[in-house]
Amino acid sequence: MKKQSGAQALERGLAVLEAVAAAPPEGMRLTEIAEMCGLEQPTAHRLVAALERGGYLTRVGDTKRLRLGLKLFQLGATGADAGGLAAAARPALVRLAAASGDCMFLMARSGFDAVCLDRQDANYTIRSLTGHVGGATPLGLGPGSTTILAHLPEAERAEVLAANRERILALGHDVPSKADLAAIRKCGFCHEVNRSVAGIVGAAVPIMTPKGHPIAAIAIGATEARLPETRLLDVIATMKDEARKIEAIIASSRDGLLS
Amino acid sequence: MKKQSGAQALERGLAVLEAVAAAPPEGMRLTEIAEMCGLEQPTAHRLVAALERGGYLTRVGDTKRLRLGLKLFQLGATGADAGGLAAAARPALVRLAAASGDCMFLMARSGFDAVCLDRQDANYTIRSLTGHVGGATPLGLGPGSTTILAHLPEAERAEVLAANRERILALGHDVPSKADLAAIRKCGFCHEVNRSVAGIVGAAVPIMTPKGHPIAAIAIGATEARLPETRLLDVIATMKDEARKIEAIIASSRDGLLS
DNA sequence: ACAATAACTTCCATAATATGGATTTATTGG
DNA sequence: CCAATAAATCCATATTATGGAAGTTATTGT
C-alpha cells in the first residue's frame, strides 16, 4: 500500500537531491543514490538525468559521480532572505556582534528544523554546531533552535518534539524537557552551557510575529570565559532590544513576512 | 507529441520552483503558477503541495501566496562551494579586493548561465548587474560570464550563444560577436566599458581546468575613474596570477572539482 | 452586509506516464 | 587484458499522474 501523495515522482526526485546533499563532496554514484532512496536503478537514472538537465545536479569532474549543482545555490540565494527577515535582522546582528565581541547567529524556522540564515562574528573564534550559514539543526537542539521550539504553541511544540526526539538523540544530545521549555518561555531566553560543545556557551532570544508566532531567533555563541553569568544578562537584554526592533520592522512591512 | 523525458512530473515540479523564484517577494498565487508553467490548476496544486511538504515552498505570512522555502537555501549552501572552487578562490578574491580597492567577483558556469559564487568588496560602492551572490546571468552578458563563454570549445560556444541570444537581447544588451570572443581568447581577458551599466568598467580573466575547460572567472567591477586604461593592465596581470594559483589548487586536489 | 466572483481544494475515471526486469554498453579494478 | 561492477538503454505493464467537473472557501464589489 503506497502513500497517496499524488506526486510520487517529484517526491522521489527531491529525495535524490537531499541524498546527494548529505553525501561527501566527492559526490555520489548512481547506484548509491538508488539504494539510499530505495529506488530501482533505472528509476534513479531517469530522475538524476532530469535533475542534471536542470542544473540541480552536476557530474564531479569528468567522472560519473554526482553532486549538487549551482542551480540550487541560485534558487537558495533567492529564497534566503526569507521575505525580508534576513535583511531586517542584518543591522541588528552587526550591532550585536560588534557590541558583544562575540559571534551572533540568525536562526529561522524551516519545518522541523532551524536554519542558520546569517552570521556575524566579531572575531573569528567559534564555529558552533550550527555555525555555517545554510546549516540546519532539528528544532530543540542548540539555543536558537530551542528558543523557537519553546515559543511554539503547545500543540505544535508537541508535534515537533515527537518528530525530532529520535533525530536529536541519534546525534548524541538530549531532548529539552517540558520544564526546560517552560523556563525559556518564562524568562524569554534560552541559555545553554556545555550542551552541544564543551566550553561553549550559547544563548538565544526569539523573534516573534505580531500574532505571537516564533519565526526566528537571535543566538550568541561564545566561550565560557567570555560570557560569565554576570555579563550574560546584560547581553541578553541587548539581544532582546534588538529582537524587538526586528519585530517592529516585520510588523510594519505590508507584505506579511511572517511564517 | 510530448517530450520523452521520462520524468515529466519532476520536471514540472522544478519548473514550479523556478517560476516562484522569478516571482516578486510577495509570492505567487496557485493560479499564477499554473498559468506560468502551463499546467492545469489541480496539477499545479498537487506539485505545490509536495514541494511545500518538503520545505521547498512556504506560504507567505498567513496568506495562500507561495514563496521559496528555506530548504532551498539549505541545499544551496551545501552545493555553493562547487566542489572546492569557492573555498579555493576565496583567499585570492580577498587579496585582489584589498589590493585593487575594488569589487571582485567569482563567477562560475552553470549550464547556460554564470552564477556569482562569491564577492569581496574593498569598499561598498558598486552593485554590478551580477552583483549579489547567487545571482546569475546568461553566458555572454557581463565580463566574467563572457570570459567563460569565450574560452569554451568552438561547438559548445555556438550552442550556448544560440541558446542565449534571445535572452540577452531581451534584456536590452547586445550579444558578443565572434570577433569579440576571439579577442578575449587571444589576450586572455575580457574588458567592458559602459556595457551593462553606464560609467562602470568590468573586466575578467578565466579560471581553466587542467584540461583547458573554463569553469569560472574572476571579475572586477569599478567605476571608470577608478580603472583607467593605464591601471587596467596591471590589475589584469594580478588577476591572472591569482587565477593561475586557483587553477593550481584545483589541479592538485585529487577529487576533480572541475565541471 | 450580502451577493457575485474568483481562487483554492477535493474527487475520480481515464490514459498517459513512470516503473523496474532484462539486456547491452561502458567503466573500473585486478 | 579480462573479469567484475556500474551505467545506460529498452520496453511491456500497471501504477501513477492527469485534468474535467463539482464542491469550498476566500475575495471583491456594491
Instruction: Tell me which oligomeric state these chains represent.
Output: homodimer
Q: Characterize the biggest β-sheet of chain A.
A: 6 strands, antiparallel
Classify the beta-strand content of chain A into a percent band. 15-25%
CATH-defined architecture of the largest domain in chain A:
2-Layer Sandwich
The unreliable regions of chain A are 124-129
SSE order of chain A in H/E notation? HHHEEHHEEEHHHEEEH
CATH superfamily of the largest domain in chain A: GAF domain
Tally of strands of chain A: 8
Q: How would you summarize this macromolecular structure in one to three sentences?
A:
The first copy, chain A, has 259 residues and is α+β, with helices and mostly antiparallel strands. The first copy, chain A, contains 9 helices and 8 strands.
Molecular structure report:
Two copies of one chain form a homodimer. By secondary structure, chain A is of the alpha+beta class. The first copy, chain A, has two domains: 8-75, Winged helix-like DNA-binding domain superfamily/Winged helix DNA-binding domain (Arc Repressor Mutant, subunit A, Orthogonal Bundle); 80-252, GAF domain (Beta-Lactamase, 2-Layer Sandwich). Helix content of chain A is 47%, strand content 19%. Chain A has helices at residues 8-22, 30-37, 41-53, 70-79, 85-100, 143-150, 154-170, 178-187, 229-252, and strands at residues 57-59, 66-68, 103-110, 113-121, 136-138, 190-193, 200-208, 214-223. In chain A, a hairpin with a 6-residue loop joins strand 1 (57-59) and strand 2. The longest helix of chain A is centred in the C-terminal third of the chain and has 24 residues, at 229-252. The first copy, chain A, is elongated, with a radius of gyration of 20 Å. At the A-B interface, helix 1, helix 3, helix 4 and strand 4 of A face helix 1, helix 3, helix 4 and strand 4 of B.
